[in-house]
TrEMBL record:
Domain Vanadium-dependent haloperoxidase NapH1-like second helical-bundle positions: 330-504
Signal peptide: 1-35
The keyword Signal is annotated on this UniProt entry: yes
Transmembrane segments: none
UniProt keyword list: Signal
Occurrences of domain DUF6851 (ranges): 69-218
Source organism of the structure: Kribbella caucasensis
Protein's recorded name: PAP2 superfamily protein
GO molecular function, one term: peroxidase activity
InterPro entries named in the record: Br/Cl_peroxidase_C (IPR016119), DUF6851 (IPR049283), NapH1-like_2nd (IPR055161), PAP2/HPO_sf (IPR036938), V-haloperoxidase (IPR052559)
Length: 506
């Protein structure tokens, strides 16, 4: 067991014969694995990209897009050396002759493609992460050749085509869209304005700030650096980003949307969350924290990439041609499915602009006594409903975007779906050991003893990820369950298209 007193934290790997343990966000994840083998180039670049995510602190949908781009660039470069597969931009136009289709060429081309993509998406990590990895692999990052007779040239050309396409996909990655904020990457290009005034969590609840109880409300609070902040809605334009496989973000938009103020369903969902919050067990608190994936982590898309690393070690066994081909395809399909899931989730978030539990519960029950978790180390008490707090750190009480639909549920259902489809089985068989007292919300007290979370299947893990946000007071039931459905649909659609690329039929 590895005993870390804080999470999230960077993944590190420990391996023993027959068993792998991965320190995942400060927790120990275990599962069946074959003999110890070094990471192949796909896993090395995946972990490098995840460190880029941690360093950049991008929002969840931007993270999903970035990971999809890195692995699409790697896939397109690798496909040039495969006998059948075609790339996403050039099709079979980069296909190299049989004499060049060696493992060495695949590895080098994929590394150059990954490097160019990673530097474009996470420029702040170039010197600390990406350049050292290139040096470790024996490649010169300054080699910008476009000669298709060299693997470096294939990687550079393949990646350039993907980046050129994605720079104009509606994400505003470069911050150069005239409708956005000049020079600010990923800035909104839709002119979104919050319907409600910010709720100041450093002050008593003020119901007058809630102009529309059905709509999202910004929060003002003191963050982990001690700064008073009021984060805006993250990426309200994201539903307009061009997906990988789904027709559009709006093509999966809910026809009904979430419950609205004044209906019985609105009050019932708030009461349900109040009841969950008042009866949290240590295991439920652990689940809420394990899946939080907040700032400084690899976020929900990164969490499923770490699971995929474990699947690679369990199933692919080694750095040979088979292992690299399997990982190239798995991470390509996985990350593009989650990319699409993020677009679908954010389309619903922006269209319905829905209220978070912290606003709905405080608005409904302020001035009334409710039984609830009263804050760290205070247990469950009768409190004023206007003081209700989700089971979250006060430095990050609720993510800054609408409630409906759950990004965690969408990303996780998509990730689980692809891993199930790719492996041909829902079997996962992994677990996470959470050491006693390792909570960041209630440190040294929760959990009272070690807790082991086990996932027999990928679906089990995805469902727990969705449920964790209800334990944490972040989402209502409908926002969780509806997003699981669309996440699974994104997995099916992305997997179908990925298979066409693999078979040379796209």
């Amino acid at each position: 067991m590895v005993n870390h007193k804080s999470w999230p934290r960077r993944c590190a790997s420990l391996r023993t014969a027959g068993v792998m343990a991965t320190v995942l966000f400060g927790l120990t994840t275990t599962g069946d694995a074959g003999a110890s083998t070094p990471d192949n180039v796909v896993l090395l670049w995946n972990e490098a990209a995840l460190q880029g995510v941690r360093d950049s602190q991008l929002g969840p949908p931007m993270t999903a897009r970035a990971l999809a781009i890195v692995h699409t660039c790697m896939y397109d470069a690798w496909a040039a050396y495969d006998r059948v597969a075609v790339g996403t931009r050039y099709g079979g136009g980069l296909r190299r002759p049989a004499g060049e289709r060696t493992l060495k060429h695949q590895v080098e081309a994929s590394s150059f493609a990954a490097y160019r993509a990673a530097v474009d998406l996470f420029p702040a990590s170039r010197v600390s992460v990406f350049d050292p990895l290139m040096a470790r692999l024996g490649h010169d990052p300054a080699n910008i050749t476009t000669d298709l007779g060299s693997p470096a040239g294939v990687g550079n050309v393949a990646c350039a085509a993907v980046l050129s396409f994605r720079h104009r996909d509606g994400s505003n990655q470069l911050g150069d869209d005239p409708a956005g904020t000049p020079g600010v990457p990923y800035s909104d290009i839709t002119g979104y304005r919050a319907a409600n005034e910010p709720m100041d969590l450093t002050q008593p609840f003020d119901a007058s700030t809630v102009r529309d109880p059905s709509r999202w409300q910004p929060l003002r609070y003191v963050n982990s650096r001690g700064d008073l902040v009021t984060p805006g809605f993250v990426a309200p334009h994201w539903g307009h980003v061009l997906p990988f496989a789904v027709r559009s973000g709006s093509s999966m938009r809910s026809p009904t949307g979430p419950a609205v103020y004044g209906t019985a369903a609105y009050r019932e969902q708030a009461l349900e969350l109040l009841d969950i919050n008042a009866h949290l067990t240590d295991e439920q608190k652990v689940i809420a924290e394990y899946w939080t994936d907040g700032p400084s982590s690899a976020l929900p898309p990164g969490h499923w990439n770490l699971f995929a690393q474990n699947v690679s070690h369990r199933d692919h066994h080694g750095i040979g041609r088979h292992g690299i081909a399997a990982d190239i395809k798995m991470f390509f399909a996985l990350n593009n499915a989650m990319f699409d899931a993020g677009i679908v989730a954010w389309d619903n978030k922006r269209f319905y602009d829905s209220v978070r539990p912290i606003t709905a519960i405080r608005y409904l029950f302020h001035g009334q006594r409710v039984r609830a978790w009263a804050g760290p180390f205070r247990g469950v008490q009768l409190i004023d409903g206007g003081d209700w707090w989700p089971y979250q750190l006060p430095t990050f009480p609720t993510p800054p975007f609408g409630e409906y639909a759950s990004g965690h549920s969408n990303f996780s259902a998509a990730g689980a779906g692809v891993l199930r489809l790719f492996t041909g089985s829902d079997r996962f068989g992994f677990s996470a050991v959470i050491p006693a007292g390792s909570s960041t919300v209630e440190p040294n007290a929760v959990p009272a003893r070690d807790v082991t979370l086990r996932w027999a299947t990928f679906t089990d893990a995805a469902n727990q990820a969705g449920l964790s946000r209800r334990y944490g007071g972040i989402h209502f039931q409908q926002g969780d369950l509806d997003a699981r459905d669309t996440g699974r649909a994104c997995a099916e659609i992305a997997w179908h298209l990925a298979q066409r690329y693999f078979a040379g039929a796209a």
